[in-house]
DNA sequence: TAACTAAGCAACTTTTAGGTAAGTTATTGT
DNA sequence: ACAATAACTTACCTAAAAGTTGCTTAGTTA
């Protein structure tokens, strides 16, 4: 009962996982090839990376472009919807930076 | 390996759960008695509410004041550190509001 | 004296998130 | 012929998050 009763909850359901914000954050600088993006997220397993980008794509936050070459080449990029999270992602990052100082 | 390799990750470790942002959000308006606060978070179980406020208190984001009366009375409020999340919490809420429109 | 109250603890179960290891694909370089 | 490559997928497993139920406390009111 009562899922998404408030917008904040809705937002968290979209990006509130361990890896999603980090993946989105690293795409702020521009499109990335799959393997390169994954290496920017240290500690993520192959499975979780795939699962994370699948869901982000399904929710329209990132796009996925496949180049029909061998070996495969896939690029991910933020959609307009994904880019609209830029300020929030940077705020979260900035807040962490500031907060650490105060410990 | 590699926990908290970036500030965003650090932030998510502090507030990146299903309930924490919502509880913090509802405290933006001021201190609340435990039961009242809990009712503002529909769907949360008693256990998760207690666990959530315990962790937020442990991390210094909220304070807990106990009044030695019967039946018990407990009030929660944001600390300065918790208040510093105000802009982010409102941004997340606002983003959800805007994003829903576009669906 | 028994019910009621607000807060929250404890034991237990279920659900979800996340990790590991192996296999698949089609071409290119050796 | 065969290893190497990038980007997966699948099956299986563990760990963490969340839910459920029942209990405790001690004064107040019926």
From TrEMBL, chains A, B:
InterPro entries: HTH_HxlR, WH-like_DNA-bd_sf, WH_DNA-bd_sf. GO terms for molecular function: DNA binding. Keywords: DNA-binding, Transcription, Transcription regulation. Coiled coil: none annotated. The keyword Glycosyltransferase does not apply. Pfam families: HxlR (PF01638). Residues 6-103 form the HTH hxlR-type domain. PANTHER family: TRANSCRIPTIONAL REGULATOR (PTHR33204:SF29), TRANSCRIPTIONAL REGULATOR, MARR FAMILY (PTHR33204). This is HxlR family transcriptional regulator. It comes from Cellulophaga baltica 18.
């Amino acid at each position: 009962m009562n899922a998404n009763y408030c917008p904040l909850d809705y937002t968290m359901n979209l990006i509130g996982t361990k890896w999603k914000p980090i993946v989105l954050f690293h795409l702020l600088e521009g499109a990335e090839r799959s393997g390169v993006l994954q290496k920017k997220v240290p500690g993520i397993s192959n499975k979780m990376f795939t699962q994370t980008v699948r869901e982000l794509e399904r929710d329209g936050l990132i796009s996925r472009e496949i180049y029909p070459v061998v070996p495969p080449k896939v690029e991910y990029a933020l959609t307009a919807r994904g880019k609209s999270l830029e300020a929030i992602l940077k705020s979260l990052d900035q807040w962490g930076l500031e907060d650490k100082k105060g410990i």
